[in-house]
Design goal:
Chain lengths: ~210, ~210
């Protein structure tokens, strides 16, 4: 079979995906500054030269990691939260179950830690993470909260800050796992944390008896 | 006046405090790895040699920063949360008002960011921050929640995870200010966030009607 035949082209097209997966692993393990392009290339089974065929800089690779490994999950949570016919408590439970699955099966916590830790030297990481992940997640959550307030299903308040209340403890849990568990702290049980927090938030956001909205 | 006279000794004893304040500023601005002992010494108005009279390593300086600039605030919140005679909602409001004041007037967010970002290369930072700040804060909060559960003032649940629910959004707010606001994201209004979150948590943790504890 010759180079250029369909099979070879398919293999070649698959490479960016393999590079992204390898890069995610290396970023999660080493951080951004210390991640070596050589190591990403060798993990992905390509030459460093081939890496440069697809990506110009390490920031480009980071952007691809976010777009391919994280953004599809954001799309899904966003679509979930846009459903206006589901009562808010059920909607929140659905969204949190999805977030729980993502957090448990991906290196999301390690990437969040990397962004927080290296944003001073690489502001582009914070910009990409904010624009493509955090702000979209908060907007989707705030939108659902705002609509639920209008339907009288959620107590009145700043929906963006209500979204911070929902998301914050999940961030604390993943940061805990990446930062304190490795130095001997008892683990943060993410599944129990997200579930109990969800029920606490549902109760906490319920409209107050006697307060009309 | 001679060296060795009371005035000179007082001046000399004051130096560790000045070094700690200078170190806090430099750590907050540069991070831990990039903080230079020369810069800390010069900001504190001492020679680098004098710095070594008080501290053997940069980790020692970090420990002193935590003990002198952060731990007294933890002591205060801890003492506040230990008061068993105040109803839980008032206790939480008092503790959050204190935390709000600390967060607004100190570089706590910058130090938290530094710990998260540099724990891989300097696990000692995570260990000190966990042992002297985070675990004490969580234990004080969990203890207050557990006692409130026993008094029937808070719904039953894992008190450590309830404490995560209370603390998480504050962490998100301070990390946001340090990470995303500098790259152009709208600021996280910490005061409004902490107050609204406190009221949401008070409602969310209230005992359920019809559920006996």
């Amino acid at each position: 079979m010759q180079a250029g035949s369909p099979r070879w082209r398919r293999r070649s097209q698959a490479r960016p995906g393999e590079i992204v997966q390898a890069a995610l692993d290396v970023f999660a393990e080493k951080g951004f500054a210390a991640a070596k392009l050589d190591e990403i290339a060798s993990k992905a089974g390509v030459s460093k030269g081939a890496l440069y065929l697809y990506f110009e800089t390490k920031e480009d690779i980071f952007r691809a990691v976010v777009r391919e490994a994280v953004v599809p999950n954001i799309d899904m949570v966003e679509a979930m939260l846009a459903q206006a016919t589901i009562p808010f408590p059920d909607l929140l439970r659905l969204a949190l179950a999805r977030i729980e699955a993502v957090v448990e099966t991906s290196r999301l916590g390690a990437v969040a830690k990397l962004v927080i830790g290296e944003s001073r030297n690489f502001p582009e990481l914070a910009r990409v993470w904010h624009d493509e992940v955090v702000s979209r997640m908060l907007a989707a959550m705030s939108g659902a909260l705002e609509r639920a307030q209008m339907r009288g299903e959620v107590r009145l308040g700043d929906p963006r800050l209500q979204a911070f209340s929902i998301v914050g403890p999940i961030l604390l849990g993943v940061i805990w796992q990446e930062t304190f568990t490795p130095v001997g702290a008892p683990p943060a049980p993410l599944q129990s944390l997200i579930r109990q927090h969800g029920e606490t938030m549902i109760a906490g956001l319920a409209p107050r008896a006697g307060v009309s909205s």
